[in-house]
Amino acid sequence: MDQTLDRPKLPQMLAALAAAFLAAWFLAFPVAAQVAPRAEPITGPGVVTIGNIATNARVNVRSGPAAIFPSVGSLPWGTRVNKGLCIGGGSARWCEVTTIDGKISGYVAARFLVEGGATIPDDGGPDFYVVRGLSGNERLGVRVEPRAGATLLATLREGEIVRNLGCQTSGSSRWCRIRSTTGMDVTGWVNGRYLRESGAPSKPVPDDGGPDFYIVSGLAAGDTLNVRTKPSTSGQVIAQLAQGAKVRNLGCQTSGQTRWCRIETTGGVKLTGWVNGRYLREG
Question: Model pTM?
Answer without folding.
Answer: 0.39
